[in-house]
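Appendix B. Chain record.
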Amino acid sequence: MFEESYIIYFTPFFFKNGNTSKNKYFVVLKNNQGKGIIASLPTRKDFVPTNVATEFGCVEIPEANFNCFVISQNIEVTECGKSFDFPTFLYGHLIDEYNIQKMQEIYPNQGTDYVVWGKMKADLFNNLIDCLKKSKSVKNKFKKMFEINRKN
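Structure tokens predicted for this chain:
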């Protein structure tokens, strides 16, 4: 369930901070040898500064400590040809760690609690990881884990 580059759709997703649960996509960025995962929760909320024109790809504004990877609407995201119906944003400062065992306890049933939406296309996933690795807003511990990912 938590393989790198897979997109999972939770129905609903329970946020760590206690925010109201809702249906949510979840992109697995790194699996730490089955112990934990680093993931991003894509959103349709656009917080990219208005003076930056990017419809697709990496947005890095170091002086603002801002990082985002933008996926345009209707771009094929998965190997099986799926795309998001709306522009989608993955913010570097919002990636987080999740305990696999705890996730499996909360979401035990595939098809009911979640669906594996698809595997992200390799080029797209590599561009996303490269964007996050180069960001000033991504925690160093995550960037180091992404480097380990590339060496193995």
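Further analysis of this model is presented in Appendix C.
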